[in-house]
Structure formats: structure tokens, C-alpha cells
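Ticket #4471: complex job returned nothing on first submit. Input attached below:
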Amino acid sequence: MCGLGKEWPSSAASDFGDRPRRDTDTVNPRDRLLPVGRRNPVEALAQQVTERVVDLLVGALDVNQLAARVDLNAVLARVDIDAVLKKTDLNVLLDQVDVNAVLARVDLKPVLDRVDVNDLVSRIDMDALVEKTDLGAVIARSSGGVATEALDATRGQVVGLDQFVDRWVQRLLRRGHPAPSAPPALLPAQAVTLAPGTAIPAQAEL
Amino acid sequence: MTARPSLVSCQGHYAGSVSRFTAYAIDLAVSTGVFSLALAAISSGVEVVTRHNVSWNRSGAVGAVIFVGWQFVYFAYSWAVGGRTFGMAVLGLRVVRADGTSLEARQGIIRALVFPLSFLLCGLGFLGILVQREHRALHDLIAGTAVIYAWDARAARLRFLARQAELAASHSLPGGKPGI
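Support reply: We reran it on our side without changes. The output follows.
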């Protein structure tokens, strides 16, 4: 075994006294407890000075002011978002999101107040909606029957005749200026404004 | 019924001559029919009570006055209350004020009062429906009214499309039963 039969230095030997030496006596446990300065006083001084300077520096720094000076746009511009997203497993992320809890915290009323429902509805192509979905069957069953349909057809035919006669009268009178299509109070409410002299084809439009 | 591709809503537009004359023809038929039925009912009632045969002659002075009075009541009441007569309702027309706002009862009654003036001079008063820019007849100009289309062609178009969609669905199903 190492150290067996060796003589310890006099200082170390005096620490152990007169007791017999053991194997563990090869490592002096007091070495770890000794302050660094006892081995290198200059290094210890430098360390103490550095620690003090850092403390003073951190204490004097206004982190908020520092953050305000940081140009986040420039920082973000240097970030490759695509690369970050490629490394991110969104499924795992979404699995951890409690959507119900999120929705429970959302106040939908102010959101809905800001939505222009009329504008939204006006963008809907009702013709396509009725033709391509089962909504047509629902409307057909809920709205009138044969009588209503016949009435719609009759009205459509008569309106077509109205427009036909009106077009010929306009031609005979050779009117240059277009006639108003509706009373003033009803003009903004019109969904579609017919051009003056425009005729609805007799067998069309309804 | 043929397929009709485009959609036009004429709601609120000035009604044309064909619509208005057709509506008037329906009104004339209905009011005359109701008048005749009422006279027949009254005659039967009087005959049952008095055992005397009562005959009404509309060409006579009394009969003519009653008939004109009935016509006035029919049109005045219809325009004053709802802004439309039965014939106008069938054709989807409505009487409004010249600016497009709702008709007042007073104006409806005035319109019924001056309505006969349009028949004078061989019906020249009605010529305004054809040539006047807002399709207003003489009685419209006097009463400050106009006649507009009050039916929604867009809704009619949707009903038409819905019927087509339902027919298509019924043909596509094996049993021919339409499904939602």
C-alpha cells in the first residue's frame, strides 16, 4: 500500500500526535479547509476585489433601463424563427395546453362586439350555400309550399313585364337621364340597384 | 319552371304598369265578387224573413251608389290600414308616401277619394304610371303617394334554389326520399 512505511513531514506528523499511522493518513483532510489565501494571498485578494466590484456594478445597474435600450426588433431579426419552429414539436406543446381553461378565461363579448356581423353575412354567397349544402332542403321544407312557389313565379313574370314595358316607354320618350328606381327613403335599403332601363328577362331572375 | 341563374331584388323599387293594372284587376274582381255575395246573402236573408223576393239591380241609382260606396270602403280601408289591397298583396305591391316612408291612414283615405279622378278623360290619369318618372298616377300625385314592390325577390330566389336542391337530393337517393 502506498505510504506505508513512509515518514510524514514534521508539521503533519505533529498534527497526528503519537497515534499509529493509518492508510487514510496519506491524505491530509485539513488541506481542503485551508483558505485559498494561505496558499496564494494575491489571488485571494483579486477574487475579493472582483466580487466586490461585481456587487457594486449589479447594484448600480437599472435593469429596466437597460432592457429599454435593447432593440428587440434587431434581436428578433437575427433569430431564425423557422429553425426554431422546426425544432419545436407543436403537438407536444398543444397537448399540454388546456384549451377549455384558455377559453374559459376569454371574454368573448368584447370580441363579438367588434365583429361586424352584417358585413360578415353580406360576404356569404347564399346561392352557393343553398345549392351545395342541405340548407336548401331545410328552407324548402320550412318555407311555403306550391302556392308560395307559384306566387313567386307569377311575381317574377309580372316584374319582367313591368321592366319590358318600361324599357320601351323610355325608348319612345327618348329620355337621356335615368329615372330614380326607388323613393329616397328606400334607396339605401336596396340590396341590389337595377341600372335604369335594365330589364329583368321575362323568364328569368326568380 | 326553368332554372334562373341570377338574383335580383326589386324590393323598394317603383312598381311598373303591368303589376299595378293586374293588381287593380284582381281588386276589382274580388271587390265585385264580395259585393255580389253580400247582396245575395242579404237578399236571401230578407226573403227568409219577409217571404218576399228581393232583387238588386246594380245599374240602378241605388245599386250604383251602394256599389261605389263599397268600392270606396274597400280601397280606403285597405290603403289606410295596411297600405295595400288584396290584389296588391298578391302582386307584392305596397302604397307608400312619395318619399318612401309608411303611408298614414289619412293619406290612404285621400288616395281612395281622388282615385276616381284618374278615370276621368278616358283614364288619362293613369297615363302617369307609364310615362311619369316615378310611375305615379294622377291620384298618387294628388295624395302624395307612390307604389313600390314590397316583396323580397331574394327570398323567392332562395326558395327556388332550395326547391331545386331538394329535388336534386331526392333524385340522388335510391328510394327517391329526400333527406336533410
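Residues 4 and 23 of chain A are 7 Å apart (CA to CA). Closing as resolved unless it happens again.
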